[in-house]
User: Which sequence fits this backbone?
């Protein structure tokens, strides 16, 4: 266990000697610079410099550079890929997430000596666990508020994403609650625009939800998107509390790290963290961020639910990548402070993904949000919700989907359309 | 001029019909989704849907996809590149920068139908100018505080980046102020680590700077890196005010948008905005962000100085890209609220970049920070600073560098090393 240092792993592609490229990274992100300078004494280096603690060659003679530079490739350039681990003294930055970011993911990705660079993981000493709240509700707190145990939370998203006013949103929520849904979320495009003001939406939706809660004894969880400037988020949060809401949603890349840390400190509700924009951070396999590294920042800042995409999703991500992300959300970060969060599966999710998701994850601690999978059931929304629960019951019990469908008509009918 | 809509331009690469790919983008980022849904009525669409307002084909039969997907390329796939402009109703989000981000740069970059996507520019209605502060000091305010008119501010960075304590930092600042420097900044790796506590560094450095200001009547500007959690940044900001500091620095990608908006609201000093991490947002030419689009967010949030890299830099960026970024910083965003900021040139800057920078930019409203260009002058730091000023005087007067060097020995000596 690290105590006074922190580490980061990288996938590095370089047209120069990989050992030299790794040393350049370590130098650039600590006491070194492009040229030798008199102030960088051996004593200072031993105190403050980052160290290359591992370097494993993965691939030699890569056919071409992944990323361009202002210096074109010479003929017969030899390009190598390696996994590199750097280690820094905690004394350089202290347990500060924003300064961690500038150190492990600062002026590195533009280096000429890297024709590809992706941060794969970070490992932090316990001082970070002491400095940040982590998820205040996490899996257990979310289950308690939603009243769902022993199976995933089945959810959906308000669609159309934008364009419905408060009353139309509440009418849709009424239908969904009547259908037995566990969880509903605003779309990330809907926060507090004049066409659907936040306060009016919350009032209209929570009136409906409270009515269903009175009827069933269980309050469906609605994640209201409060993304905005800090004063707006504070005000919207208080509106949620005043109306008995049980979840808030924020877009991580819109709010940013310092805003999310602040939200994590004042929020008295679970934080449903949306990762929209993730593609620009990750879509090229030799650039940017691995979700394994990235999600640690937000868990420590206080996120309770983290989006991970879904199996057979409508986007470009592979199933392996989705499952790696989801597993990481359930993997403890610190011995005394696990900071585990609920992975949120979404995008094209239907009854057909339950078995594969359960087999790959080995857990029901997740939230599955389905759009068409709920709304497009031929027998209506209630049948859509029931079919998803049935699919999960079958997955958990180890019963093949088609077999379970024979005795569960809603599931059978769902399979007719989710081809 | 836009009043009730906002727009974004994209570079799109797609293996499908580009018109259909553009419509998918518009749908996904407004009222549409992957499947047709009953709630998306023609009336709702006309009110809330994004529109494709321009589509120009740039390149047909691109040899291969720039970015991978979970569906491999079929043989003989026809890939096209196009410039696409989308337009949204302001009523969807209101004048909110965080929600703008989720809309123009949200779940777009992961679309299967895009094998490349880069946001090139955004255009905002005046409501955004009214909702956000913009730079409070900008070019004129920075010049007034630094006491520099008619030429660029010549600056440098504390190096080694980390490892110097408060006293050693102050000793270096003393030497630099004695040499006549205009501007000094902390490195982005140095904020408030235990090895160089912020408050002690500010106290030690400002004592030195005030002594030089008393001597010369001009206070060199020091940008103290206060990057941290919000409460820490507030406290550090107050420390700066108490010690008579004239600039603060923050790392944009560490603080994030909501944190920067909040900093912009309370800061009573110019904000020197560092873009470390920019590489992961921009390094692949068919993914992520153009600086032209990205810098508008931060200018509106309140940044006064924006890093743009430098000509002949040590990183991978081309000179054309650097100049396009710098020009944009000097281009007004709104008729009544230009939000222009000082571009900061850095990385490998020496006397050799003055002429090219001035020729390309046509302005002296910039800050040039040189490391080796100041510190490595054979006759010392004062000669280094003087040589840079002489290079700029020659550039402004239209005198070739070599000619000016014959009558200005510090410049001549600088040319001997900056080969």
Assistant:
């Amino acid at each position: 266990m690290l105590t006074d240092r922190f580490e980061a792993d990288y996938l590095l592609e370089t047209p120069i000697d990989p050992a030299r490229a790794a040393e350049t990274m370590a130098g650039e992100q600590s006491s070194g610079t492009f040229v030798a300078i008199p102030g960088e004494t051996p004593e200072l280096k031993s105190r403050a410099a980052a160290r290359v603690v591992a370097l494993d060659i993965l691939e030699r003679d890569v056919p071409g550079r992944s990323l361009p530079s202002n210096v074109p490739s010479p003929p017969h350039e030899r390009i190598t890929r390696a996994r590199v681990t750097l280690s820094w003294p905690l004394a350089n930055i202290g347990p500060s997430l924003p300064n961690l970011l500038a150190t492990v993911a600062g002026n590195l990705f533009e280096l000429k000596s890297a024709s590809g660079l992706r941060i794969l993981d970070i490992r932090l000493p316990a001082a970070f666990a002491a400095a940040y709240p982590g998820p205040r509700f996490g899996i257990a707190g979310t289950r308690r508020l939603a009243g769902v145990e022993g199976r995933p939370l089945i959810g959906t998203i308000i669609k159309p994403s934008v364009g419905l006013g408060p009353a139309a949103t509440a009418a849709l929520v009424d239908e969904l609650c009547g259908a037995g849904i566990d969880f509903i979320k605003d779309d990330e495009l809907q926060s507090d625009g004049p066409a659907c003001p936040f306060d009016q939406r919350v009032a209209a939706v929570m009136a409906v939800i409270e009515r269903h809660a009175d009827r069933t004894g269980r309050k469906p969880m609605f994640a209201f998107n409060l993304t905005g400037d800090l004063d707006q988020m504070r005000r919207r949060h208080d509106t949620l509390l005043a109306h008995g809401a049980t979840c808030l949603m924020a877009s991580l890349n819109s709010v940013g790290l310092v805003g999310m840390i602040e939200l994590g400190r004042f929020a008295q509700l679970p934080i449903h963290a949306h990762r929209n924009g993730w593609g620009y951070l990750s879509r090229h396999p030799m650039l940017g961020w691995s979700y394994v590294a990235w999600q640690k920042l937000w868990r420590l800042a206080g996120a309770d639910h983290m989006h991970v995409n879904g199996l057979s999703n409508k986007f470009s991500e592979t199933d392996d990548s989705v499952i790696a992300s989801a597993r990481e959300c359930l993997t403890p970060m610190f011995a005394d402070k696990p900071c585990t969060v609920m992975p949120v599966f979404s995008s094209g999710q239907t009854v057909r993904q339950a078995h594969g998701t359960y087999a790959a994850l080995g857990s029901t601690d997740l939230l599955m949000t389905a759009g068409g999978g709920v709304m497009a059931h031929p027998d209506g929304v209630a049948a859509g919700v029931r079919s998803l629960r049935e699919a999960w019951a079958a997955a958990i019990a180890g019963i093949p989907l088609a077999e379970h469908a024979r005795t569960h008509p809603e599931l059978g009918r769902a399979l007719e359309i989710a081809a």
Remarks:
- DSSP finds 17 helices and 13 strands in chain A.
- The mean pLDDT of chain A is 96.
